[in-house]
Amino acid sequence: AALVKGDQRWSYADLRAGVLDLAMTLRQHGVQPGMSVAVLITLPIEGPALQLALHLLGCRLAWITLGTPRGEIEEYLQVTAPDVVVYDARTEDELAREMFGGLGTIPVLCLGPGGLGPDLLAVDPPQAGAVDPLDLAVDGPRSVFPTSGTTGAPKAILHGDVCFQQVLDLGQAWTSDGHPTMRHLSLSPLW
Questions:
Q1: pLDDT at 190
Q2: Helices and strands, number each (H, E), in the chain
Q3: Helix H segments across the chain?
Q4: 51 compared with 2, residue with greater pLDDT
Q5: Is residue 115 a contact partner of residue 93, using CB atoms and an 8 Å limit?
Q6: Cα 136 from Cα 145, distance rounded (Å)
Q7: What distance in Å separates the CA atoms of residue 122 and residue 162, rounded to the nearest whole number?
């Protein structure tokens, strides 16, 4: 299985279809290449598909770390200037309503029903073939992660395709040298 969470299992085919379906659904909701997308999710099984779909669309992800004080989240959002917000309405609805309820013109999209915006999982997605990854050529994945470092003030750190490629290269070198599979990477969130 490509993804496992509790009794939920996604095959690699499921993951590919989920990525392409989410990419098309996001596109239908106005998400375009070059947009900054703030993401507030815990660890839903759809999380990796959401991340890959946003990267496929050429978006820059701005991850919001749970447990961060509200004031720091507000400063981080000012620094990252999201064009769109995506959050998990099943687990983060209360915080999201506090943080994003008054954003005005910034669209809010949800994983799960009952949130501030459309449920990306509720719509009948198009067929997986409706999005051709080759049509969505981008420079590479970009994610922004928050840190307060030694100053205590929120800062944004940009990780691009070089960072992600280094993680892949390290994993390949590790296993080709005969070391055991790095299972902890597969159990850790991609963010």
A1: 46
A2: 6, 8
A3: 12-28, 47-56, 70-80, 93-100, 161-176, 183-187
A4: 51
A5: yes
A6: 24
A7: 34
The 3-state DSSP composition of the chain as helix, strand, coil percent (nearest 5) reads: 40, 20, 40
The pTM assigned to this predicted structure is: 0.74
Under DSSP, the state recorded for 160 is: -
Count CB atoms within 10 A of the CB of residue 26.
Answer: 24
Residue 61 is which amino acid? Answer: L
* Residue 76 confidence (pLDDT): 83
pLDDT at 111 over 70: yes
Range scoring the smallest mean pLDDT among 16-30, 129-143, 169-183: 129-143
DSSP line for 111-128: ESSSSSS-BTTTS-PPPG
DSSP annotation of 135 reads G
Structure tokens at 81: 């200037």
Cross-strand partners of 3: 10
Contact 20, 48 (CB under 8 A): no
pLDDT, tens digit (0-9, with 9 covering 90-100), for 75-86: 888 888 899 999
Helix (H, G, I), strand (E, B) or coil at 13: helix
